[in-house]
Design brief:
Elements (H helix, E strand, L loop, with lengths): L15 E6 L2 E5 L2 H12 L2 E2 H8 L3 H13 L3 E6 L2 E9 L2 E6 L9 H7 L9 H16 L2 E2 L1 H19 L4 H14 L4 E7 L2 E6 L16 H15 L3 E7 L8 E7 L7
Antiparallel strand pairs: 1-2, 1-6, 3-5, 4-5, 6-7, 8-9, 9-11, 10-11
Organism: Methanoculleus nereidis
Protein name: Helix-turn-helix domain-containing protein
Length: 263
């Protein structure tokens, strides 16, 4: 085991987290449980580590772990370093978060008004539908970023053979060409160490309300899958700028897990 927890009571930023489990979707609203699950999304933890992270009594954390286990959200196994203690891990996936504080006020009519029936752009209606669904959910404080990210990863796996190339520069050129051909936006390579991609006219977020947070979880998932296949190692696509943050483009840093130079 590496790393130890830090003490302190949790300060969650969401009211409810939704997790998918083999037995169905589970809503987790208790702040201590959400804090525990947030830690387990990063890595496995021992009981003692979770006590420190939660900043609560052992008996309290034990009850929460029992309930989460019964709900099918987490599991446990003996610690390989010490069989007398347990290591806890997630068995469910975070699907979405719901928070009244994150509701946005934005008129859906504006999106429908921007669409012109009879447009010769075959993708116009689908972009309208995608944005309207996103904004409708945002109006209710529902954030589907985890689910969108996983969907993007699936798309990226399917897309990879169409853009694959052993050389990174040519690989990026193929991705940019695919984006433009399918009216997804315009991609530029802005740096190589680290590899930085800029996306203009991003189909996912160009018309979304400004919330101050990145909104391109779907794109991030696609790029993560593409570059993970390209480098043969888990790779992150971290969005540092976005139209929803007030910029005129989206910016992604491509980072290979474990460091190392991208070629």
């Amino acid at each position: 085991m590496t790393g130890r927890g830090r003490s302190g009571r949790p300060r969650p930023s969401r009211d409810i987290d939704l997790y998918s489990t083999p037995g169905g979707t589970r809503a987790v609203g208790n702040p201590v449980r959400r804090s525990i699950l947030a830690a387990l999304r990063e890595r496995e933890h021992t009981f003692e580590e979770l006590v420190v992270l939660a900043g609560r009594a052992k008996s309290t954390v034990s009850v929460h772990l029992q309930d989460l286990t019964a709900a099918g959200v987490i599991g446990s196994q003996p610690d390989p370093e010490d069989s007398r203690r347990k290591v806890f891990f997630l068995t469910g996936d975070l699907v979405a978060s719901v928070s009244p504080d994150d509701r946005v006020v934005d008129a859906l009519a504006a999106y429908a008004g921007a669409y012109q029936a009879g447009s010769r752009d075959p993708n116009a209606f689908y972009r309208l539908a995608f944005r309207a669904i996103r904004v409708a959910l945002m109006q209710e404080g529902v954030l589907l970023d985890p689910l969108l990210s996983r969907a993007g990863e699936w798309i990226g796996e399917e897309l990879y053979p169409a853009v694959a190339h052993p050389e990174t520069r040519a690989f990026c050129t193929n991705i940019a060409r695919f984006w433009e051909e399918h009216h997804l936006g315009r991609i530029e390579v802005a740096g190589t160490e680290p590899l930085v991609l800029l996306v203009y006219d991003c189909f996912e977020c160009v018309d979304l309300p400004v919330t101050g947070r990145p909104a391109c979880a779907f794109d991030s998932g696609i790029l993560r899958a593409l570059f993970s296949r390209h480098y043969g190692r888990p790779t992150a696509a971290v969005e540092t700028r976005c139209y929803s943050m007030g910029f005129d483009h989206c910016r992604f840093e491509i980072a290979v897990e474990g460091g190392g130079r991208e070629e």
